[in-house]
């Protein structure tokens, strides 16, 4: 099983852009401009790289002030 702590930002970004479901549950990404966090497999529009933060779980993203995506149900 993959561990978010061992993944580079570049690897997580590539998984996000390709909507790779193999990374679901490993990390979540959040978009600063929308205030929403998603699973890597979310089919929403790909955000700008500079607006993305990565979290190891949904709780961390929520503590940082992001809300779950309604499309991919990231909660």
TrEMBL record:
Gene3D superfamilies: DNA Methylphosphotriester Repair Domain (3.40.10.10). Keywords: Activator, DNA damage, DNA repair, DNA-binding, Metal-binding, Methyltransferase, Transcription, Transcription regulation, Transferase, Zinc. Residues 12-74 form the Ada DNA repair metal-binding domain. GO terms for molecular function: DNA binding; methyltransferase activity; zinc ion binding. The keyword Flavoprotein does not apply. GO terms for biological process: DNA alkylation repair; methylation; regulation of DNA-templated transcription. The keyword Methyltransferase applies. Its cofactor is Zn(2+). This is AraC family transcriptional regulator. It comes from Bacillus wiedmannii.
């Amino acid at each position: 099983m993959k561990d978010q702590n061992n993944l580079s930002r570049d690897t997580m970004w590539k998984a996000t852009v390709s909507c790779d479901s193999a990374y679901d549950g490993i990390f979540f990404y959040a978009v600063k401009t929308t205030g929403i966090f998603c699973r890597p497999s979310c089919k929403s529009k790909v955000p700008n790289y500079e607006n993305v933060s990565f979290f190891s779980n949904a709780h961390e993203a929520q503590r940082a002030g992001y809300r779950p995506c309604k499309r991919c149900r990231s909660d």
